[in-house]
Each structure stands twice: as C-alpha cells, then as structure tokens.
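User: Hi! I'm working on a homework problem where we have to compare a predicted structure to a textbook description. Could you give me the structure for the chain below?
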Amino acid sequence: MQGFSGDLESRFRTGMSIDAAMAVATDVLEPVGFTSFIYDYTPVPVSHEGDLITPSLMALHNVPRDMQDLWCKGGYYQLDPVQEAALAVSRPFLWSHKGVQSTVMQHVLRARHDPVISYLLDTRMTCGVTVPIRLAGGDLATFTAIRADPEPGFEAEARQLIAEIGDLGHLLHDSVYAGFDAGIRTCPYVHLTSRERQCLRLAAAGLTAKQVAREIGRAVPTATLHLNAATRKLGARNRFHAIALAAHYRLLEPEH
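Assistant: Happy to help. Predicted structure tokens:
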C-alpha cells in the first residue's frame, strides 16, 4: 500500500459542504483500499452523567442504509467503542474486529459494546482508522475510514497510513467547520429557548431574579418562570445546579 498522491491541503477549502469534503476524502482513500467513511461532530461529547451524546452532525458515505438511524436514533452511538476510544486518546488509531485489535481499543472494549460489534461483523465493516479531532471549546469530531472485507495484511498496511489519514481528517474538519450554523454548534442533548438561556446567563453573572427581569424588560414572575423552566429542562435540583449544568452543555455562551 502506497501513501497518498498529491497535495492534500490543496484539495480542501474553507467553507466546503460536508458532502463535498467527504467526496474529496473518498477520492483520496478509496485508491488505498478504504471503502466507507464517517464524519461526526458534537459540541459537547458527553452528558453530565458521562454518557456519549448523539452528534449534531453525522455524515456517512457508502455504509448500510440503516446505520445512521441505528446510531442516531437507536442508541448505537452510545454503545460504540470507537467513540469511547476517541474520547480517551488524541491520536489517530486503528481498530479491527477480526484481526489483531489495537491497544487503544483493547483498553475500551467491554460486553456492552457487543451490539455494535455484531453489526459491524454482520456488515463486514471490520477494520478502520479513526481520527479524534478536539477543539479548544471541548467540541469533538471524528473522521473514520473503514475497510469492508479486509484481506489478510490490510491492517499492517493501514498502520503505515495512520498519520496521513490523521492529517486528512483534520483538513476535512477544518474545511467544513466554518460553515456550521448555530443549530449544529448547539448541544442537542438539552434544548433551552433563547430567553431561558439569556436568563440563565444573567443569573450566572450574579443577578437576582428581580435584576434579571429588569435586564430582559419583563416582570419578575416572567423572569422566574424562564429560570424555573430552564432548571426543570436541565433536570437540576436548584438554580445553582442549573447554572452548573448549563455551563457543562455550553448553554451560557453567547448564541451564534
């Protein structure tokens, strides 16, 4: 297996659509043996309880039709050992469910991951390289290149390309991230209205309900209603707990 041909950086441009960027990745990686590709992004990767949060964007190419629904609606994302490994390491890593498993994955794999592993075995998507992409604000994206039905020796050859696939994954992410709208950059785990977020931000700044009401130009009972609604939606015990949870989910940041 040879490395990539041409200048990778010149093939991506800032503001590309995810479909266009995935098409470039496909053009680069198919000639070296990879068959399927996945990119996902979430502004907050785990809940306050430590559970994986379903990404706000997930793009898949050449995978089974049911995969996106299983991962995004059927709970498989929360059972995906590759995503758990991506939280634990910062470097690209190889995984294999038929050959020799990488050390990174050996530390992660547990019985709870069996549904995902069974699905990948059934669909023959048994080997891949995953690139964790962390942003300064705590966002997490991953890019994964998969080989279906890998022939003997493919894993050893893929290891030689891990660094290059890592570069490609970061270039892909950088090219599409600038185009993400507020919906994609907002954690989907908890939904607060703009007014509820505003009231919590003011409360986090130390304002009382009376002061919050003055700031938003509404009556005190209205401000209290917004604060109580936000507290309830966050599952918080009190307003202080709500502020802490809202900070975790990055809901106190100014809206884009």
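For your comparison, note the following. The chain has twelve helices and five strands. The radius of gyration is 21 Å. Good luck with the assignment!
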